[in-house]
Write a structure and sequence with these properties.
The complex is a heterodimer of chains A (256) and B (262). Chain A has 256 residues and is of the alpha/beta class. Chain A has nine helices and ten strands. Chain B is elongated, with a radius of gyration of 21 Å. The chains are: A alpha/beta (256), B mainly alpha (262). At the A-B interface, helix 2, strand 6 and helix 3 of A face helix 4 of B. Bound molecules: adenosine-5'-triphosphate and magnesium ion. Magnesium ion (MG) binds next to helix 1 of chain A.
């Protein structure tokens, strides 16, 4: 197999991961092109979040490799991982805001740690990112005082505050109202176009997948079983994918 | 056969825990010089751990001193003159009950608080979020807590020793009928500075154990609220057990080797 495919910024090869007796990833292969917006669909509990965490080295695989710009990150030590993560932004499924810090401090923390900016500049950048996600008057609030959707948007602002090369979004629109979901989808698109960011979006939300994806893939039983453009996926005759996008209980995937 | 398999699993689990603790320790040692960059956070923890524990230590030590006084007097009956009461209370407080009881009550309070806080951060992915922005959680969370607990436990113990002796003295006068003067002369008669220093030396290690067990179990937390509860319990149990074991080893080392009686 060709080690570093032309144009791929991230290549995942034959990834295996099990937790105790539960096999989550069973030979996952995925190439992510530089500058593209890739959507990963999949049923709840199929390992989408686990896959994202592998990409950033938060979880180490049992087997397989993950190449970032041609280098295998599964062999990185802590310091190299930290250096690599400077190119990444991540929105966690549960937002993962630091609850001992205000919203402003949360979003500004990466800048304070690594940005070498003045206090005034940091504040400006943070406010700008908060405006981007439609939040302006929560700068001094604590996360505990925010709604779930607001936390998600603060997490989003924090993920993009350093304007990283790659942003991983774990269910960015879950828990948002349809109007705000559209704002966020547009934002993901704009960031990708304007700053040439590579986006990886994990979602259940088929509408938002069509809106943000250049390419849509599906993770099923530990493997990527489908990859295609939004137009292709609408026409697909892959039964599992059809069942998922049409949201049917009957089909090849048995729930009970 | 089932029994052997079960024992084997427990044994492997135990070895795994020891290994995990040493891995954390190793990372702490390597990052130790960075404590100077985290002085602010360390001071905050010193306040939480030290100042916050004062009421608990106050009540515990006064009553411990009082009990030591009453029970020693009871045991002395007919064998030992009561003018030795001060000596006995002083020795047992500074050598043993002061350091150990302070460590146990503060350990319960502090290791539980640390494990619950770190554990909650773990299950809500805040630790992962820290890693994502290239902040080392060991530097940011563990170092300040370890340093603060290691420094504050001896301070609290000095305070506890003092209060326990005062408590013992008051009870000696009011209940047993030994005057302050007699108590004090007993106290000074057999006083060796090594007792106090040796007792305090132990508490540096106790403080370190308390914070280490809190952090280690916090980091190991899995699942949700239930997982945090389990980690908190494990932190308290393991720090108390380790304090008692360390107490024996340190007593042996300090009083039989370093300050060996001539
Ligand atoms: N740290 C862990 N320890 C043990 N099991 C885990 C861990 N993380 C995830 N799992 C298991 O791996 C499986 C996949 O989890 P994951 O969170 O990736 O699902 P998901 O696809 O993101 O689901 P959802 O859409 O509901 O978020 C789950 O069954 C989960 O129980
Ligand atoms: Mg998930």
């Amino acid at each position: 197999m060709n080690e570093s495919c032309e144009g791929s910024i991230i290549s995942i090869r034959d990834l295996y991961k099990r937790f105790d007796r539960q096999e989550v990833l069973t030979g996952t292969d995925l190439d992510i092109d530089s500058g593209e917006s890739l959507v990963i669909l999949g049923r709840s509990g199929c390992g989408k979040s686990v896959l994202l965490k592998h990409i950033t080295g938060l979880i180490r695989p049992d087997h397989g490799s993950i190449l970032f710009e041609g280098e295998d990150i599964t062999k990185f030590n802590r310091q190299k991982l930290f250096d690599m993560r400077m190119h990444f932004g991540m929105l966690f499924q549960g937002a993962a805001l630091f609850d001992s810090m205000t919203v402003g401090e949360n979003v500004g923390l990466p800048l304070v740690k690594h940005g070498h900016k003045s206090e005034e500049e940091t504040r400006e950048i943070v406010l700008e990112k908060l405006r981007l996600v439609g939040l302006t008057d929560v700068y001094d609030s604590y996360p505990a005082a925010l709604s779930g959707g607001m936390k998600k948007r603060v997490g989003l602002a924090r993920a993009v505050v350093m304007e990283p090369q790659v942003v991983l979004y774990d269910e960015p629109t879950t828990g948002l109202d349809p109007i705000m979901a559209d704002v966020i989808n547009t934002m993901i698109r704009d960031l990708q176009n304007e700053l040439d960011i590579t986006s990886v979006v994990v979602t259940h939300d088929i509408n938002s997948a069509y809106r943000v994806g250049d390419r849509i893939t599906m993770l099923h039983e530990g493997k990527i079983i489908y990859s295609g453009t939004p137009e292709e996926i609408r026409e697909t005759d892959n039964e599992i994918v059809r069942q998922f996008i049409e949201g049917r209980a009957e089909g090849p995937v048995r729930v009970v | 056969m089932k029994i052997f398999a079960m024992l084997g699993r427990y044994f492997l689990g135990f070895i795994g825990e020891i290994g995990g603790i040493f891995i954390l320790l190793w990372r702490v040692i390597r990052l130790a010089p960075r404590i100077f960059r985290n002085i602010g956070k360390t001071l905050i923890q010193m306040e939480k751990i030290g100042i916050g524990s004062i009421p608990l230590v106050l009540v515990t030590s006064v009553f411990v001193g009082a009990v030591a006084s009453v029970q020693s007097a009871y045991q002395f009956q007919g064998y030992v003159p009561l003018r030795f009461l001060g000596a006995f209370v002083g020795k047992s407080v500074t050598l043993e009950v002061g350091p150990v009881l302070t460590a146990l009550v503060v350990g319960g309070r502090v290791s539980a608080a640390i494990a619950a806080e770190v554990g909650t951060m773990k299950v809500t992915e805040q630790i992962d979020a820290m890693e994502m922005i290239a902040i080392d959680p060991v530097e940011y969370l563990v170092l300040p807590r370890l340093a603060a607990a290691t420094v504050m436990l001896p301070v609290l113990t000095v305070f506890a020793d003092f209060l326990a002796i005062i408590g013992g003295m008051i009870v000696a006068k009011l209940v047993v009928g030994v005057s302050f003067n007699t108590f004090e002369s007993g106290l000074t008669m057999f006083f060796r500075y090594q007792d106090v220093v040796g007792g305090l030396l132990k508490t540096f290690v106790f403080g370190f154990i308390i914070a280490l067990m809190g952090c280690y179990n916090g980091f190991r937390t899995r699942g949700g609220a239930e997982g945090v509860g389990i980690s908190t319990m494990k932190a308290v149990v393991s720090s108390c057990l380790l304090i008692l074991v360390a107490n024996y080893l340190l007593a042996f080392l300090i009083f039989n080797v370093i300050f060996a009686p001539d």
